[in-house]
Amino acid sequence: VIRDYVPDPKASWRSGKPDYLIVNRTFFEYRSLEHEVGSLEAIVSKLIKNWAVEAHHIADVQHWKTMDISKFQGAINGGCPFMAQHMSDFGACNLFLGESRDYNYRVHSFESSQKVFRTAFPMGFAWECLE
């Protein structure tokens, strides 16, 4: 199972329920490894993919189930810490990409960062946990 996300019944999707058919097909076609069910790699893979459903598609962090939002605090490369609501408002893509020669998070909203990401990866982002 690549992701088995079941949303909180009160959760609402940002722009409709996501369809992972294409990216799942890409993942299964090109993955490097097939992890043993129950292995740490399989658990991490499913957790990250389920988290991505929430982070990209459910705006209200009160309906997130993959993390304890009261305890969550993230930071990228030693940068300023952020909470779950900031990540939801600002966008995980903006937080992870930051500022570089080819991308400037300061000019992107959540929505525009998603458009950039989907343009760059039209088949979806078939992320794989290797070990």
From TrEMBL:
InterPro entries: Pathogen-related_defense (IPR053218). It comes from the Eukaryota. PANTHER family: PATHOGEN-RELATED PROTEIN, PATHOGENESIS-RELATED FAMILY PROTEIN. This is Uncharacterized protein. The lineage of its organism: Eukaryota, Sar, Alveolata, Dinophyceae, Suessiales.
